[in-house]
Amino acid sequence: DMQNAIIDYIVTLKKDNISYATVHVLLAPIYHFCEMADIVIKKKKIRKFMGEKKKVVKDRPYTNDEILKLLNIADIRMKPIILLMASSGVRVGSIPPLQLKHIQKVRDDIYRINVYENDNEEYVTFTSPESTKAIDAYLQYRTRNGEELTNESYLIRKQFDMNDLEKVKKSVQPIQTDTLRALINSLLIKAGLRQTNHNRTKRERKDTALTHGFRKFFTNQLIEANVKSEHRWLLEGHKLKANDSHYVRISEKQLLEEYMLAISGLTISNEERLAFKLEEKIQIEK
């Protein structure tokens, strides 16, 4: 009957190491079908075969060396994407809506990013000098190829054919989140950091989440640099706890000062790290 068929399906999914959350999603349309067809099933009994909800992915951060491998093979558009996520901690879904009006230089080598503008989740974070340099190089590349950048221009646009000036100028659309995920996955495979899964019926769990691994890297570097917890939460886009929000007032200047404590750790290239330290030493001696 249908109930036993569902239980057998769940057992098969679990053998294939499919996560609890994914099994739950796959069962939803089946439950809906049963309800519409007036098929009686005992969900409570079925749920016993799903086991306990537990985290399957270890979700460790990407390491500095792994991110460096990606940068070594990334093109001029993928470099700012990788460095943006690693140095500012933004979620991959927040990148497509970003426009040039949402980024502003607070120093020659640091961008202030206004994430989710006009949304309840709006917050401010920053980019490392290394990330800023990659963003500037990408924007300059687009300008050289005929695009007229304005405040409304998207920070990361869909790929274009540099030989088609009309499309460079007028067919300016933001990159899509799904495209971003696919490009990052492809880059990870090319760098030897992920395996291609040719068996589509069995999903292999990864020890690092595809895009969240960059956000975890960001968080870990802030912790390593002893960035104050309240500042770290704000830089990650979290709201302060109710009690803290009444008593803690953190200015963007203070936020930037705390962020700068972590810049060395957030910088991937050794050369860029040395350059930043040298620049900071020069500024102090002035």
Binned, the helix content reads 40-55%
H/E series, N to C? HHHHHEEEHHHHHHHHH
Secondary structure class reads mainly alpha
The total count of strands amounts to 3
Largest sheet: 3 strands, antiparallel
Radius of gyration: 23 Å
Could you say which overall geometry the principal axes of the C-alpha atoms support?
globular
Average pLDDT metric:
87
Query: Distance between termini?
Result: 80 Å
Biggest β-sheet: strands ordered side by side in the sheet: 1-2-3
Task: Note poorly predicted spans.
Answer: 199-203
Q: DSSP strand (E) fraction?
A: 5-15%
- Note the total helix count: 14
Brief summary:
The protein has helices spanning 2-15, 20-36, 43-47, 64-73, 78-88, 129-144, 165-170, 177-190, 212-224, 229-235, 242-247, 252-260, 263-266, 270-285; strands spanning 103-107, 110-115, 123-126. It has 286 residues and is mainly α.
Give the topology, please:
Blueprint: H1 2-15, H2 20-36, H3 43-47, H4 64-73, H5 78-88, E1 103-107, E2 110-115, E3 123-126, H6 129-144, H7 165-170, H8 177-190, H9 212-224, H10 229-235, H11 242-247, H12 252-260, H13 263-266, H14 270-285
Antiparallel strand pairs: 1-2, 2-3
Describe the structure.
The structure is a single chain. The chain has 286 residues and is mainly alpha-helical. Helix content is 52%, strand content 5%. It has 14 helices and 3 strands. A hairpin with a 2-residue loop joins strand 1 (103-107) and strand 2. Helix 1 (2-15) packs antiparallel against helix 2 (20-36) and helix 10 (229-235) crosses helix 12.
